[in-house]
Design brief:
Two copies of one chain form a homodimer. With 242 residues, chain A is of the alpha+beta class. Chain A has eight helices and 15 strands. Helix content of chain A is 29%, strand content 36%.
Chain lengths: 242, 242
């Protein structure tokens, strides 16, 4: 009986995902882009991570800035960069992707342009929506976070990190685009390296920031579709073009 | 002696403006756009305007939504729409522009694409930067406001209003663009009619919203350059393009 109940639940989930996928396809069908439905995860990071601890120490002037390779003992190793959990894992940069896939079950998508469809935007903060994106021979981590910077006023923060070094990150530009209800919002920037803290990028507000009211204007039935594109860096040369 | 002091002050102001104009031209020279230096004005609107009063009444369920033509006695007349002052003036929509120019000394600029250079971004909230923009046979009012929605956390809100009716406004799309430090932020929307309240557009957050940290990243020496473009409306047809 339990088996049948579980099967029925799984079928319902599949129908729900299929419906959301259809909705997203309807919105972005003209571009023929890959749509990825991303479910939220409540942040379990209640204990401070090494990164946060390093940051706190930095603020007290006792440690250098928050770069993982300056914090860990072996400079060849990086700690787990998953922003959801305080995970004791550490390893070489080359195996971060497989760790994130296998241990934290973060999906990876191929393609230069994809649509990230974050579901259940109404869930209370802190909540994260995370996916990996593989293109141009590299892997990127997209983080959408709902967080209360000002108590009682949750905001949404979206940023993209390269799973690579800061100098590799400088070769790329990422674009996040929201488009609905006769409104369009575009954010373009150089991705940060995953060796920097995603927490500090978000607390600095150096990313796409949405108030709840604007997020609602861009959402459809509780889901927020973000168009993502990655290109090799051209921001330097186009700075004066506007 | 006083005359010479005043002359010297005026010359210093001119040099300062010329320098800011040069800086803006340096940033946007490639596009050959018109750069307009806009100085801030502290909001003197401490007394509630008719619009705010109408809104308060609406919230209590006693009056229809905040449209000036529903609030004034003569439906042919609109009150002063200047967001800076509670001004007792009212007149026909056709003479709003000359009232704003003559009484409130708001500049008007010609051209489909201009650069709005707001100076002294560090001034405390509430502060407004306002200009009129004439193009495609209509006049638009650009309002940039620094306001504390959450106490102690000022934000910047930028929106464009058509000095015309809501149905006329639906024919246009405006774009605001910030571009600096390898970051680019674009907001595109249909302008609201000046018959609606600029205050409610800003309090709804249905406009370009910048946290102080992001505004600092886009500013150069305390000035924020916003590229403005107005086109006839195409948002409907491009909604699925992304």
């Amino acid at each position: 009986m339990l088996f049948f109940t579980q099967c029925f639940g799984a079928v319902l989930d599949l129908i729900h995902l299929r419906f959301q996928h259809y909705k997203a396809k309807r919105v972005f069908s003209a571009a023929g882009q890959l749509v990825c439905v991303v479910n939220p995860t409540h942040s379990l990071k209640y204990a401070p991570t090494r990164c946060a601890a390093a940051q706190a120490s930095t603020e007290q002037g006792t440690l250098p800035p928050c770069h993982h390779h300056e914090v860990v003992h072996d400079p060849q190793l990086v700690p787990c960069t998953c922003p959801l959990f305080s995970c004791p894992w550490e390893g070489h940069l080359e195996v971060v992707v497989s760790h994130l896939r296998q241990t934290h079950r973060i999906n990876i998508l191929q393609g230069a342009e994809i649509v990230f469809l974050a579901t259940d935007m109404h869930l209370p903060a802190p909540t994260d929506w995370i996916i990996m994106h593989s293109c141009l021979g590299h892997q990127f981590l997209l983080v959408l976070r709902k967080q209360e910077k000002y108590e009682g006023h949750p905001q949404f923060f979206a940023t993209m990190m390269l799973i690579g070094t800061p100098s590799q990150a400088n070769n790329f530009t990422y674009r996040l685009e929201l488009n609905r209800n006769q409104r369009r919002l575009k954010w373009e920037a150089t991705p940060r390296s995953i060796l920097e803290c995603v927490d500090s990028v978000i607390s600095d507000g150096d990313c796409l920031v949405l108030n709840t009211s604007l997020a609602q204007l861009f959402s459809d039935n509780g889901s927020l579709a973000i168009g993502i594109a990655i290109t090799t860096s051209k921001v330097h040369s186009t700075e004066a073009e506007m």
